[in-house]
Amino acid sequence: MNLNEALNLLKNEGYKFTDKRKDILEFFAEEDGYRTASDLWEILNKKYPGISYDTIYRNLHLFHDLHILESTELAGEKHFRFSCGHDHHHHHFICNNCGKTKSIETCPMDFIQPKFQGYMIESHKFEVYGLCPVCQ
Amino acid sequence: MNLNEALNLLKNEGYKFTDKRKDILEFFAEEDGYRTASDLWEILNKKYPGISYDTIYRNLHLFHDLHILESTELAGEKHFRFSCGHDHHHHHFICNNCGKTKSIETCPMDFIQPKFQGYMIESHKFEVYGLCPVCQ
DNA sequence: TTGTAAATAGGAATGCTTACGATTTACGAA
DNA sequence: TTCGTAAATCGTAAGCATTCCTATTTACAA
């Protein structure tokens, strides 16, 4: 997923193209890490003073539903990042300081699946937290 | 960790012994899964009508700090369970319906640690979600 | 039995998120 | 290009989990 793919997906699904949606997608396309709704609001409010939180959250959910963004919960707050898992399943290391991520290609489910006979597995979460080389 | 160990730990650390603390610990000792603050409030309010949420949260945090309870975040809400990780590190399968858990002894960090040269790993989260045999 | 710090009650405040009526806007059709 | 309409946004209120605060009560040691 990149910026153009996301813009095309929006158009193909029949959603309207607005400056704010473009700027939201550009924001996430430029970031390589998890960001919160208020991170996004801080940036957009410079260009669109008084932008509604409704607009922020509505579009975050829309983009998430369209799989343009993926999300995770960190410290009780939802965080979003540009989706990078369209072509292959993987997990993330997430820097506790800057929010930037590093892909982890190994999926622990490959090792433990056999141990869950009788259980219906619906999803899983594997994330590693710490400090990236830059933030140490 | 069991109920008596928890009660002794409380006493040894100099905390006062109250009926509410006893009942909170008994609640978690009887449950074998993750429960929320309001789950707990629902139960305690029967015996102590009007019990303050302050009491609930203050004690949940106390017990968590004392490692009597462990916690995780599910669907935007903090969940707590009696700690079972004192003697050995492990992860959990968590039933999406009843909250009950099953231990996972395999830790994915054993496989991926070498791939993080230059990164300072501080913590990790691995949880599997689905339906337990009873809830299917 | 009493003194005191700890614990609790009751309720207000906070922070993130969602909801909603009124207004504006994107965009296809005329 | 203009117009009509559904979609998008605004401004603000409400919801929910959680935290905070002060007055009151309680556990427990002296």
Automatic annotation (TrEMBL), chains A, B:
Keywords attached to this entry = Cytoplasm, DNA-binding, Iron, Metal-binding, Repressor, Transcription, Transcription regulation, Zinc
Give the GO terms filed under biological process for this record.
negative regulation of DNA-templated transcription; regulation of secondary metabolite biosynthetic process
In terms of SUPFAM superfamilies, this protein maps to: Winged helix' DNA-binding domain
Q: Where does Fe cation bind?
A: H89, H124
A GO cellular component annotated for this chain's UniProt record is: cytoplasm
Per its UniProt record, the required cofactor names are:
Mn(2+); Fe(2+); Zn(2+)
Subcellular location per the Swiss-Prot or TrEMBL entry: Cytoplasm
Q: Does the keyword Transcription apply?
A: yes
Q: How is the cofactor bound?
A: Binds 1 Mn(2+) or Fe(2+) ion per subunit. Binds 1 zinc ion per subunit.
Keyword hit for Iron:
yes
Any idea which GO molecular function terms this record carries?
A: DNA-binding transcription factor activity; transcription cis-regulatory region binding; zinc ion binding
Q: Name the CDD domains on file.
A: Fur_like (cd07153)
Q: Where does Zn(2+) bind?
A: C95, C98, C132, C135
Highest taxon, organism lineage: Bacteria
Query: What PANTHER family would the database entry show?
Result: FERRIC UPTAKE REGULATION PROTEIN (PTHR33202:SF1), ZINC UPTAKE REGULATION PROTEIN (PTHR33202)
Q: Which family does it belong to?
A: Belongs to the Fur family.
- Protein name, per record: Transcriptional repressor
User: Origin organism of this chain?
Assistant: Allobacillus saliphilus
